[in-house]
């Protein structure tokens, strides 16, 4: 077994990249790898989120726990979360939040002095560290139109009501609490392979073709207006719903089309909460995966542990 | 108000009447809706029929009035039957369950001092007083943690606030008058002059004997301090130091929370009255009970994070996974219809001109068939199924999963209020067996069937441990001569059988205290059960 290698060389092709959205292809690897990447993006890429709230004054209609929960769910810019420390591992502080390595302090001070309802939003949270601030969802175009973007509403205050608090944000992962998850949506699909039996399809009347094409809820197939041939317009629109297969069966034409899922190519869609960029989310996830593998990887001098790890040991030694 | 389906299940079965203070009692109701429906089913109105036609149809009578004729009454009745969408007993179950649901019945709940109150952080809909949330429900067999009416809930959704609720519990007490001169008083009991103080924390009380609002309180902390004066002659041995007796109220031992509000007022009798409202947040956890609006209740069997949940190609993970076996025998088609129609309404593009309508029944033209077509046009599998992927492996699930939004209510039965265990604790005075009940810190009954189980396993020693050593183990000395219990002084190592008047030939036996009790009671009846070893 020594020296035997299962190493593959996955390829990534980026299709679309925006700040909070990424779409890419992952090829030449297994579903286990694709799924590990998905799971890590959702649950194990660290971000910063409010974890401790000290309320000084709260005369609003919402109780303290309610406000603390809402504060926790506000996404904070977490570009430096990877290099921060978990407060449980931090030896520079005793977890009181005054430490520059593991926590960021926020202050909120709002009081309504007018008859108009005051919206307390994430913009009212004053951060002690300019790198960690509430995510700005403000559409730049909205500023010009005078429509003020006020961030995420925390609570509304009436005349005389007041909210004063100190909050401490810490590094964490989505597995511990969903507020630390940087991912809004992470999903992948198996690239489908669609084979139309041209001979059988050619024997169908135009009406039959039309009915068959329309049996798919998503627009996967269409009829070429010139040739009258059924063509695949968007195979990735296929959701593995089997509707076209059932329709073919119902028409008495089983085998009209054959659809397989490719086992080794995946199309990922990643949306971020804004805490980190979608592209960074993918990179961080790979980094976290590598760290996890490092934790189990065996060095050359622990070959004796092969009893325990067997084939895997050789594999992990870089075979 | 009387509901045709609401009834208690079982013994107290029968219609339920509720008469409110401002009730207006009606006799009968307008038949317009029924007439409209019948007209849609080809009823020929009495005004439109010619004398010759009468004989050709069957008379239709509504509320005692002849309204018209129908040519094909069989078909009409069949159609009417088809309008029913679920087993009516499910309506009955829902009527019973609605009473256990969390809800708002007054909007001033922040000020009210009601005994127990449950409330959602967020809700999507309220039907009269019941609060509902729109959960994304998948009907699937996944991981096996949703067998037999249990459900799997998405922990990430819970973290984000799904079914998070508030629990208010109000404690009250008053300064009762004892006799004409003596009166109880609120105040912090002082260990130096108060007797009967318990081994719990009195530190959270202010000088006035009440907790301050905003204080965190946990198991058995005293929240209302109250003492009564003790007459000096009654307080026997402790007369010198103790002038007062403790009558404080502490939190129930299983509860924790924050003091929300403290109210001090005067009761109708002119006595000082205090109410303390304690608030806690109830986050859904394993064992909590939830229900849809179709009598489909279930407890949480497991919570999974988003990454472990099955997902659709769009990245949707369900909030709740139900077991498919909950449906065939109960025939709650209504829930499936609610789900599929909800799904259509979620994705449909509605505007002011094109407002959502319909109820999935045959009464409107938005029936199930049309929902299928609408879903298909929106790009979804028309029966509401979706291909899903296993969260653990990333592989496609072999079956397609029915998934969509469904209203769910949270019921008041929560694991936190019921969880109980005991290692050691109080025993009954009479039998010296462990007491019963969670509130008293009692034992958990090891009943006949459990006993049978251990017998059939042949685990005799464990059985003895259960029923004897961990229950009411006791030891007596028996006179070998007469077989009756003798008195013993183990310190002096002296024994005496009063009947035989001998001091030797004794044997020590280990018996349950309950057996010792029975022997003594039989003796009192003139029966002498003798123990020979």
From TrEMBL, chain A:
SUPFAM superfamilies referenced in this protein's UniProt entry, alphabetically: Insert subdomain of RNA polymerase alpha subunit, RBP11-like subunits of RNA polymerase
Gene Ontology BP terms: transcription by RNA polymerase II
GO CC terms of this entry: RNA polymerase II, core complex; RNA polymerase IV complex; RNA polymerase V complex
Key words of the record: Acetylation, DNA-directed RNA polymerase, Nucleus, Transcription
DNA-directed RNA polymerase RpoA/D/Rpb3-type domain segment(s): 21-299
GO MF annotations in UniProt: DNA binding; DNA-directed RNA polymerase activity; protein dimerization activity
InterPro entries, alphabetized: DNA-dir_RNA_pol_30-40kDasu_CS, DNA-dir_RNA_pol_insert, DNA-dir_RNA_pol_RpoA/D/Rpb3, RBP11-like, RNAP_Rpo3/Rpb3/RPAC1, RNApol_insert_sf, Rpo3/RPB3_RNA_Pol_subunit
Taxonomy, superkingdom: Eukaryota
Signal peptide: none
UniProt subcellular location: Nucleus
Gene3D superfamilies, sorted: DNA-directed RNA polymerase, insert domain, RNA polymerase, RBP11-like subunit
One Pfam family, short name: RNA_pol_L
CDD domains (UniProt xref): RNAP_II_RPB3 (cd07031)
HAMAP family given in the database record: RNApol_arch_Rpo3
PANTHER family in the cross-refs: DNA-DIRECTED RNA POLYMERASE, DNA-DIRECTED RNA POLYMERASE II SUBUNIT RPB3
Family statement drawn from the similarity comment of this UniProt entry: Belongs to the archaeal Rpo3/eukaryotic RPB3 RNA polymerase subunit family.
Protein name: DNA-directed RNA polymerase RpoA/D/Rpb3-type domain-containing protein
Organism field: Dipteronia dyeriana
Automatic annotation (TrEMBL), chain B:
Catalytic activity: RNA(n) + a ribonucleoside 5'-triphosphate = RNA(n+1) + diphosphate
Protein location: Nucleus
GO molecular function: DNA binding; DNA-directed RNA polymerase activity; ribonucleoside binding; zinc ion binding
Domain DNA-directed RNA polymerase subunit 2 hybrid-binding, chain residue ranges per copy: 133-440
Ranges annotated as spanning the membrane: 109-132
Gene Ontology cellular-component terms listed: DNA-directed RNA polymerase complex; nucleus
Function: DNA-dependent RNA polymerase catalyzes the transcription of DNA into RNA using the four ribonucleoside triphosphates as substrates.
Entry similarity comment: Belongs to the RNA polymerase beta chain family.
Protein name: DNA-directed RNA polymerase subunit beta
Organism encoding this protein: Dipteronia dyeriana
